[in-house]
Amino acid sequence: MAVPRPMQLALLTALGLAGPAYFLFQIEDQKTFRSILISAAVSLAGFFVARWLVPLVAQKTLSRGICGKDLNKQGTPGADTPIPESAGLAPACAFLLCIICFELLHYYDADSIVAFVTSGFRGKLRLEALPDAWLVDYNAALATICFMVFLGFADDVLDIRWRVKLILPLFASLPLLVAYSGGTGVAVPKPLQAAIGLPSFLELGPLYKAYMVALTIFCTNSINILAGVNGLEAGQTFIVACALLLHNLIELSGFAGGVPALRDAHLFSVYLVLPLAATTMGLLAFNWYPSRVFVGDTFTYFAGMTIAVAGILGHQSETLLLFLIPQVFNFVYSTPQLFGLVPCPRHRLPVFDPKTGLLRPKDKPDWNLVNLTLQLFGNCSENALCVRILALQVACCAFGFGVRWALQGIYK
Ligand code: UD1
Ligand code: MG
């Protein structure tokens, strides 16, 4: 490992947060700026809570036998040491605490909170009238994510069958689905309007809700199957959360005079992805190569669901899908194995060669991005493989921003 572990994590954090930090300070509307600042402060606390909780959860899961072998280290001394599973429970709980605390703070006027803190906790907090629709959406999001964490943990403990596992997010998305009061129509892309004579706005009704469910099933499972290399599950989550954060802050920074509903949608997404990024970093401190804990399906389902909910309630699912190109590709490329056309082992991982310390694909490589990266770019260490796939993730997010920029005014 040429670059030391703490330095790798510091670089990843700087890469993810530099852009959002820059655009945060470009936001002109003071109320918007301050409410994001409060969300950031709560998220920072969430980072420390997650970092504190991970070892506690790990100790408990290990003592209960909820643990696994690090499969990419077979043949090395210590390869048989059990590694605690389901450590994702820690960031998930820290995240839920964050968004509950943030809701509590949101009852008060953001300016008065900042004044209260900067004056050394003196003065009075002013109550803010929150729209009912906001509260319903926010609490529905909370219930859905909470249900997903529960089902993810149930899966880790009970080892649910693959086909049942696939549809768990459907159940978790129910609170969001029944409470959803937002629009069920979509703005039709301009090229489509011209090509097949569609109106500029299409009411989709129940189809829109079906799309919401499909997105939750896709996001959760696609993160869960781009996995198996130390740091990859949490790493991709951190990058996608930061990309969504950047997207929202770019939009909010140039917002003067925009439609208030659109601003609120961007803010809603910020309130979810900021604590997600922060608590995920708290987990990465332990899950980065060499992993001292495994994240478990508790984490992959929690992270996928939070990203999906941010995409839905933030009205940014198309942008989200651009950021998720590696996951979309991995999902599509995996279908022959997932649907049994090609034999699918329990773990679709590479082989570790203890002599060289490098990973290589099996003789008959599994059909996923992890193996394809090795096939295309050559054998490498586990740490390097994770960094390569995360670099691809960053490149796809940059591509997503590029596509958005290029299609501005043309697409919608
Ligand atoms: C998914 C993948 C599976 C992959 C697994 C690894 C599909 C259909 N399923 O299954 O191919 O092997 O994730 O997460 O694509 N592990 C490591 N190193 C890591 C992370 C995990 O060795 O960095 C191993 C450990 O033994 C750990 C186990 O994977 O106990 C966790 O697997 P789990 O998340 O339960 O697998 P699935 O999500 O079912
Ligand atoms: Mg998994």
Automatic annotation (TrEMBL):
Pathway field: Protein modification; protein glycosylation
Key words of the record: Endoplasmic reticulum, Glycosyltransferase, Magnesium, Membrane, Metal-binding, Transferase, Transmembrane, Transmembrane helix
Enzyme Commission number(s) from the entry: 2.7.8.15
Residue ranges crossing the lipid bilayer per the database entry: 33-54, 89-108, 133-154, 166-188, 208-226, 238-259, 265-286, 293-314, 320-342
Bilayer topology annotation: Multi-pass membrane protein
Name listed for the protein in its UniProt record: UDP-N-acetylglucosamine--dolichyl-phosphate N-acetylglucosaminephosphotransferase
Origin organism lineage: Eukaryota, Viridiplantae, Chlorophyta, core chlorophytes, Chlorophyceae
Reactions mediated catalytically: a di-trans,poly-cis-dolichyl phosphate + UDP-N-acetyl-alpha-D-glucosamine = an N-acetyl-alpha-D-glucosaminyl-diphospho-di-trans,poly-cis-dolichol + UMP
Main enzyme class: transferase
GO biological process entries: dolichol-linked oligosaccharide biosynthetic process
GO molecular function, one term: UDP-N-acetylglucosamine-dolichyl-phosphate N-acetylglucosaminephosphotransferase activity
Pfam family, one: Glycos_transf_4
Listed cofactors: Mg(2+)
